[in-house]
Amino acid sequence: xxxxxxxxxxxxxxxxxxxxxxxxxxxxxxxxxxxxxxxxxxxxxxxxxxxxxxxxxxxxxxxxxxxxxxxxxxxxxxxxxxxxxxxxxxxxxxxxxxxxxxxxxxxxxxxxxxxxxxxxxxxxxxxxxxxxxxxxxxxxxxxxxxxxxxxxxxxxxxxxxxxxxxxxxxxxxxxxxxxxxxxxxxxxxxxxxxxxxxxxxxxxxxxxxxxxxxxxxxxxxxxxxxxxxxxxxxxxxxxxxxxxxxxxxxxxxxxxxxxxxxxxx
Length: 265
What we know:
By secondary structure, the chain is of the alpha/beta class. The chain is 36% helix and 29% strand.
């Protein structure tokens, strides 16, 4: 499903948080939402997921989300927040199976059980299937949450910092799997990420957030420049395009740190 957003606005009370957001995301692609803390990334994802009531237009294949029934939205969209761990006394298999809630009847089908088993195996956490959630480490819980999102087989996949609790190996494995599933199933995937090099390697499109607005959007090699990094993050860096056409960032110094040093001379 093609996702389009026009003039999206949101306020917490009287304080504007998002202003005039214009963007689109396409099926079969990962769109990375990047930007510093408090730029509006999480709020944007929550607005798209329907958890926050915003103004403006959010459209799926040209149809406004407001016109969809709640059950339709649950079927089409899957949202993984930063903190998604449940305190329910469930095994990993049961928790992931609940991700199929929109399609489950009183009787769980063999297809649902097989789908859960396959997702756990793909994420290499099938050995945790009978473990209880409260027995898991933070990284393991995050993997279970990712499994819950993928098992729903959504058309729109929204993920807020899905790799934040994972070690480097699992970060790469998880984003690899998300990219493969996105392409194979034609999912429209939006991921908020802080790691710019990770985002550049896996995303087809960037949406750069700054002070609640879209500062820039487009292909990573076009958007991710040393000027953008300096303006948005306050970091001096070098950015070069590697042999695969992917931008690589090497941070050098904080802009404020350099300014303090110059003043002290």
